[in-house]
Amino acid sequence: MTEFTGFDLLPTTPAGRDFVVLAENHAKQFAERATEYDARGVFPFESFKEMRESGFLSASVPHEYGGLGVGLLHDLMVGMSRLARGDAGTAVAANMHIAGAAVIVQMLRRSKADGDTVMADVLAGLLSRVSAGEVLMCFPATERGTDLTSPRMEATPTADGYVLNGRKIFGTMAPVAHLFFPTVRIPNGKGGYRTASAMVPRDTPGLQIVDNWDALGMRTSGSNDITFTDCAIPAGNIFAVRDNYGTTGQWFASFTLTAHLPLIATYLGISEAARDLAIAAAHAVKGRKRLADRVPIQQLVAEIDIDLCTCRAMLQRTARAADEFIARHQTVDPDPAESNALMKEVQCTKYVVNRRAIEVVDRAMTVCGGAAYMNQHPVARLYRDVRAGPFMQPFAPYEALEYIGKVALGLDPNLDR
């Protein structure tokens, strides 16, 4: 008879189970040094070396290209939540690479369906290098003063390729990445733009990683600015060209689902770690009896578990809907109304999980007492890390409310910026 371990989210496939086991093992290692890395505000190169060696970073690469073959967002989400229990900043950075590889898998399937054998071969070769641990990837999309649908970084056509100019912020995983995939705009010759992704090797002249990541939390994520100044790339290094500048059009849903659902799950992991620390603190004797025997502490812990139940239920439901959506649209673009309806659900989930996770960690700090206010206490780090959730793309909280409301009312969902 197996021991009952509670109602944690669980993977649903063999590959997912292998991934989660690796995540849990890494989380134990990372937790032991997370406080030191956080205090120093340095990137955890040692942790990424260990994840490359274990195969963890090849999670979303299919077996045929040498990866773990985790094909469900649900299972990727569970694994990332586990890793975040040990070090959330490292989990956020790892997700950048793992989710990016999952998007490349989607692009590969689409290229094959469209008969684009040249692009398919390029993407297949890239996935093989990822699974071999030869390539780590960064997918910078955020820029100051705009949103994901309207990049200002420009790819100007030349005789033999493109020249890139622009600046990205929150370039998570930049310190260790070998390849960068910034979103760009390309002039369409009619006064407007198309969108695309560019592939830029780290040693490309004009690419500079600005060592300026000094944030309140997520201090191990390496989310530096990245500048691109007259970076020349060949024409074959431009992918997924779409006529959807400024809109939530083709591929927006699939990309944001794949990149951001596991990211949302990292905040569940933060709150779960805080819950465990609160439970341990509650069993300590303070005064004449344990904290756990005091009614106010029991109420705080009850509220923590209620919020965790809510977050797990929403994440599981949304992940299953997302996996069904992606499976139906591997080779064809989804209907915009269906995309927006699902994205509305994702934004509802993000809004609730981010808020509840913050409240859980706040209650955990109350249970742990004044010691948790000190920077060396793990709850202090969790408290700062969890505050990053609402700022994550694609929408800030006030933008999410506008988007959710517009979709629910049947209005044009593009935001009024």
Overall geometric form: globular
CATH fold-level assignment of the largest domain? Butyryl-CoA Dehydrogenase, subunit A, domain 3
Please tally the β strands and state the result. 12
> What topology, given as strand order, has the largest sheet?
2-3-9-8
What is the residue-averaged pLDDT?
A: 92
Cα-to-Cα separation, first versus last residue: 58 Å
What is the total domain count?
A: 3
- Percent of residues in helices comes to 40-55%
Low-confidence segments: none
CATH superfamily of the largest domain: Butyryl-CoA Dehydrogenase, subunit A, domain 3
Order of helices and strands: HHHHHEEEEEEEEEEHEEHHHH
From the alpha carbons, calculate the radius of gyration and give it in angstroms. Answer: 21 Å
Structural class: alpha+beta
CATH domain class name of the largest domain: Mainly Alpha
Count of helical segments?
10
Largest sheet: 4 strands, antiparallel
Describe it for me?
By secondary structure, the chain is of the alpha+beta class. It has three domains: 14-136, Butyryl-Coa Dehydrogenase, subunit A, domain 1 (Orthogonal Bundle); 154-242, Butyryl-CoA Dehydrogenase, subunit A, domain 2; 252-408, Butyryl-CoA Dehydrogenase, subunit A, domain 3 (Up-down Bundle). The chain is 51% helix and 13% strand. It is built from ten helices and twelve strands. The chain has a four-stranded antiparallel sheet, with no helix packed on it. It has a three-stranded mixed sheet with strand order 1-4-7. It has a three-stranded antiparallel sheet with strand order 5-6-10, with no helix packed on it. β5 and β6 (193-198) form a beta hairpin. α1 (14-40) packs parallel to α3 (73-86). The relative contact order is 0.12.
